[in-house]
């Protein structure tokens, strides 16, 4: 795979496999497109190997017997990664679904893995980009509408896609949902100027200003909570009505003379060295406590794949940004109603962090979820959505 033409040819062959109704021909296309141990994952399905992918495509065809997959636009290749968009439509008529797939190329030019991201048409959120003063760009989705705006700030090393199950529920309730990819994550550009927490907070300010949002509810998860708090401390709360923090990694993580409960710098240095050596191995080892036993294998696989789409250098830089930030002074600047949702089985951000964050914000309300881990946005999705909607409605 050494040219754009060859990359496009591979994408077209991939989509031809999705459209092929003859089992034997489909098997040939899959073998020509995927390595023998290739993996496919999206929010609704996961499969591995030629036989697994063959069966998955057959199941989709059975559900949409008169529909055709088609490529939208050109493929975008960066090294061994390929990005392309597609639509699903009846033989004559408008598209009913679409999405963007991210593929990893094997040395022989076939797909080693494909991660799919789905949008449902015609009510899918509008996707666009925001240009930033330093030349970078942020991808965002905006459902539009006249309802109160909600802005989602995603967790460490993930992307705005993590919020799709909250967006679905809140959009159905009439709210305007905006979610963006942090710089260096998802479909936003990498940041030559770095990932300081102040910079990340300024990016949130750019989103709010670009869309001229007023009376917004800011919802953050994990690292995203630090961005929300720093945004209010730096820019004020004139555009903000409410704040919701899920599993915050605030107010301070390091061990300091006045924070003996924190981790020593050596522990973080060892963690980052592990990531730099084998980030996928670390992700696999630490996947179980992020979920609950009932979480489906497909959901687990999707979120781990989402994590591993983030470059390890970005993963380290963004965690360094929050580790070396003390947000205790920021808490005093929060002057809007604040809800904190935190699980008592959170290994990534122990409940004590949520308790300290709540204690530092005047009037903050802490809701403790028994048995909930760091991934409560998918493991406890119904309760999270109910609590968020009740909070937003006041």
Word description of this protein:
The protein is of the alpha/beta class. It has two domains: about 5-120, Roll (Nuclear Transport Factor 2, Chain: A), CATH 3.10.450.50; about 125-394, Rossmann fold (3-Layer(aba) Sandwich), CATH 3.40.50.1820. It has helices at about 5-20, 25-35, 50-65, 165-170, 195-210, 225-235, 265-285, 295-310, 310-325, 330, 350-360, 375-380, 380-394, and strands at about 35-40, 45-50, 65-80, 80-90, 95-105, 110-120, 125-130, 135-140, 150-155, 175-180, 215-220, 240-245, 340-345, 365-370. The strands form two sheets. The chain has an eight-stranded mixed beta sheet, sandwiched between helices. It has a six-stranded mixed beta sheet with strand order 2-1-6-5-4-3. The longest helix has 22 residues, at about 265-285. The N and C termini lie far apart (about 55 Å). Residues about 1-5 have low confidence and may be disordered.
Summarize the structure.
The chain has 13 helices and 14 strands. The chain has 394 residues and is α/β, with parallel strands linked by helices.
């Amino acid at each position: 795979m050494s040219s754009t033409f060859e990359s496009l040819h591979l994408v077209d062959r991939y989509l031809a496999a999705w459209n092929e109704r003859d089992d034997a021909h489909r098997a040939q296309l899959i073998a020509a497109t995927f390595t023998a141990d290739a993996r496919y994952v999206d929010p609704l399905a996961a499969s591995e190997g030629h036989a697994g992918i063959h069966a998955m495509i057959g199941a989709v065809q059975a559900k949409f017997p008169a529909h055709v997959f088609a490529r939208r636009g050109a493929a975008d290749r960066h090294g061994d990664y390929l990005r392309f968009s597609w639509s699903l439509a009846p033989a004559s008529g408008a598209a009913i679904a679409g999405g963007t797939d991210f593929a990893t190329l094997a040395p022989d030019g076939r797909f080693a893995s494909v991660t799919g991201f789905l949008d449902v048409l015609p009510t899918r959120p509008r996707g666009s980009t925001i240009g930033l003063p330093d030349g970078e760009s942020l991808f965002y989705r905006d459902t539009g509408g006249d309802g109160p705006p909600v802005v989602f700030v995603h967790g460490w090393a993930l992307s705005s896609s993590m919020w799709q199950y909250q967006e679905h529920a809140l959009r159905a309730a009439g709210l305007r949902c905006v979610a963006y990819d942090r710089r260096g994550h998802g479909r936003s550009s990498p940041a030559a100027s770095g990932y300081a927490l102040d910079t990340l907070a300024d990016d949130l300010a750019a989103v709010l200003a670009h869309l001229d949002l007023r009376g917004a509810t800011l919802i953050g998860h994990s690292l995203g909570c630090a961005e929300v708090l720093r945004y209010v401390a730096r820019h004020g709360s004139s555009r903000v009505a409410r704040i919701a923090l899920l599993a915050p990694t605030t107010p301070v993580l390091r061990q300091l003379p006045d924070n003996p409960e924190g981790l020593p710098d050596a522990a973080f240095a060892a963690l980052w060295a592990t990531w730099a050596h084998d980030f996928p191995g670390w992700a696999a080892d630490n996947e179980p406590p992020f979920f609950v036993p009932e979480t489906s294998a497909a959901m687990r696989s999707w979120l781990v794949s989402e994590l591993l789409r983030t470059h390890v250098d970005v993963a380290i830089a963004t965690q360094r940004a929050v580790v070396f930030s003390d947000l205790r002074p920021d808490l005093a600047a929060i002057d809007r109603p604040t809800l904190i949702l935190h699980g008592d089985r959170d290994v990534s951000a122990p409940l004590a962090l949520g308790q300290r964050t709540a204690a530092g914000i005047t009037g903050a309300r802490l809701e403790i979820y028994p048995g909930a881990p760091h991934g409560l946005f998918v493991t406890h999705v119904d309760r999270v959505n109910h609590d968020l909607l009740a909070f937003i409605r006041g």
